[in-house]
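COMPLEX REQUEST
Ligand: iron/sulfur cluster
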Amino acid sequence: MDHRAQALLSWYDRHRRSLPWRDVGDPYATWVSETMLQQTRVETVLSYYKRFLRAFPTVQALAAADEAEVLKLWEGLGYYRRAKNLLTGARQVVQAYGGAIPSDIAQLRKIQGIGPYTAGAIASMAFGRPEAAVDGNVTRVTARLTGYRDNAASPSGRREIEARVRAILPVERPGDFNQALMDLGATICLPGTPDCDRCPLAACCDASAAGDAEELPVLPRKNPPRAEQWDVLLIRSGDRFLLRPRTETLLQGLYVFAMAEGFHPAETVAEAARAVTGLTCESPVYLGEARHVFTHRVWEMRVWALTTDADTAPEGWVFADAEEMARLALPSAMRVPRRLAEQLPSGKPEA
Ligand code: SF4
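STATUS: Structure written out below.
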């Protein structure tokens, strides 16, 4: 075994984080947890993971679920495409493999939502196959450890990082090795300043010796997210609010209040509400601001309350009271508008 792998594994045996999806030997559990962990902190994932596995303990149970049910359990976790892919993938596994998740990388990659990282994670952690699983943490540790100083995000950079992980990866404990790299990246070899004094790899680390660990990995600067301005319209009929499931790619299937692009002066808000929903609305009252950052865009929102006499929701919309709203999946972007809606006194909002 490579001496770096040995040092890392003996550190892992002493310092591993105890996580509910570890050492369960269930590829479905690895798949769910690794999908949830993409772009999301471990602390946030813990409760979601437990609830999800309780509701859908097997790939068959998930495959039989409704998308609305799955989205509801994912509510607040963000990046909802992951949930939809997981559901589609589970159905694929049931249809193509009789519900048995394959161990082979090429077969795993054919399943919806399973990219190179998740395929490597499932193959190595659940099946003990010597496959690399390269995420952001692993890229950072590997670039520093082996002194990779070219662009690590380019296609050739990614290939090179993976080749370097494979060169160290032990056939004996590939799953533990991958998780050890991830843990090291999450706790010691941090973005910004790494804690090399506590690192089990310090003696053999290229960047630590060269003194440029803080500059690695080399990644191109990302474009800042684009700002969009929206008026969020809490249109109320009695105690019920108007919402619609989104059909746009972003947040598709999740319920949002009416939204009119741009910030409108108070005197044109009712007109904007009519343009968006077709309903005659009145008495707009400004309630406050909200902001939500997505990967590529930011929603800057102003929230208004309006009333309507309409009893029936237009096509593609629903009226929901507080109880009904609790059953719908609303994205985190609607957290503040929803709280403002819940705080409104019943009846017409006061001007
Ligand atoms: S010695 Fe420092 S830079 Fe190198 S792997 Fe460890 S924490 Fe990262």
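REMARKS: Residues 141, 144-145, 188-189, 194-196, 199, 201-202, 205, 207-208, 213 surround iron/sulfur cluster (CB under 6 Å). The first strand starts at residue 226 and ends at 237.
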